[in-house]
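Weekly modeling sync, notes
Attendees: S.R. (lead), two postdocs, one rotation student

Agenda item 3: backlog of single-chain predictions. S.R. asked that every request posted to the team notebook include the full sequence so nobody has to chase files. The rotation student volunteered to paste the first one in as an example of the format we agreed on. Action items at the bottom.

Example entry:
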Amino acid sequence: MQSNTKEIIESGDLEAYLLGDLSDKEAEKIRKYIHLYPEVKEAYVLLEKQLESYTKAYKKTPSKDLQSRIERQIHAMQRFTRFSWLAIGMSLLIFMASAYYVVQENKELAVKQGIVDSQIENLQLSFDSQLNELRSQFILLNSPQTRTITLNQLLENQSLKIKAYINSKERMSYIEVLRLPQLPEGKCYMLWTERNGSKESVGILPDSIQEHFFIPIPFKEKATAYITIENKPGNLNPKANAALFKIPIE
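Predicted structure, as returned to the notebook:
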């Protein structure tokens, strides 16, 4: 039975169950394993703790004054709609002009309110995207089926270092930047892939890259990922023989 529990733990199904990526039938099966086998339960509890720690370490929260800034903006807009009705004794012409002004201001307020609502919606979408990114990274880093490659390079007496994480089962691959020195003005690090002679740019890396910066790579079987130094804004035909790093994706 020990070999069976080991297979369950190393299958990656515990991670998928924790993140809600299994069907109802598969999830029920994992729940039974957790209930029946202490080793499986212990591994699952450990994964829960790791996920909680990982999320706390990498989550990005909105600035503390975001809500107060939005409220101040809304209050400022609402002040536009205040209108004094002490002018009732004025002439009909002035009254009509004032009424027209209020209508226009209300329209402008509605537009601005819509902009604020849109900003809040976009912020939520950004949070959702970041959460999905963290989930993918968590699966990749904790799955026993993930292959890890550490690559080192020396460039003009400066040490460069990255890690590649590749999981064929989940069809995911990431690069973790551990050390990439800043390049001279007009130069950039370019990440690209090649498969069957076809080259595809993944993108240009930021000028200033913090340690443990994760970069997703589109998973393509039998492809190779490269990092080269190019002139900004990149090269349409980068050369593999000039690559700092070569990462086989299998």
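Discussion: group reviewed the output briefly. Residues 2-58 form one domain.
Action items: rotation student to repeat for the remaining queue; S.R. to check formatting next week.
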